[in-house]
Amino acid sequence: MTRDVLISIQGLQFDDSGINHVESDDELDMIETICPGKYYYKNGAHYLLYEEIMEEFFESARGMLKLKDKEFMVIKKGAVNAQMVFSEGKKTLTDYHTPLGNILIALDTKKIEVQEDEDCMEIHISYGLEANYQFISDCNISISVKSLQ
Predict the structure, then answer these.
(1) Kind and range of the H or E element at 137?
(2) Is 22 exposed, middle or buried (0-12, 13-18, 19+ CB in 10 A)?
């Protein structure tokens, strides 16, 4: 894969009523973020660096994705600050800091699937999401990375 890549991240976003008030999947919206980024492979791990425009906070956040074996890490700094770890078969906790307040998030990772070839990589993560010790939903994240040539 080339150093310059296009990253697509598809996942869930909560409606404006807030994470603690989600009563059905109808209140969750699928969102997709597409942005250019940089790809690195070092010490057996894949790294992706990107900047995400967060329109709802009128700011941006720098992001780093790290994939090594069956562990996937998302680090965001800026409008939102978080370090989320998806580790297959494990539950991890993190504080998710937003301008609207902090949320304690639990990620119960069921499965991480990775498909890669010379010019692209697909990552699919299935997990259970909890917020402030309350189950919210079973979720999926799909990340697609393609070389820019």
Answers:
(1) strand 134-147
(2) buried
Domains of the chain (ranges; CATH) run 4-147 (2.40.128.20)
Higher-scoring residue by pLDDT: 83, 11? 83
Instruction: For residues 27 and 36, give the distance between their C-alpha atoms in angstroms, rounded to a whole number.
Output: 29
Task: Give the tokens for residue 66.
Answer: 């790290």
d(C-alpha 10, C-alpha 124), whole Å: 10
**Sign (positive/negative) of CA torsion 95, 7, 79, 28?**
negative
| One-letter amino acid of 129 | L
Its pTM stands at: 0.83
Amino acid at 70: K
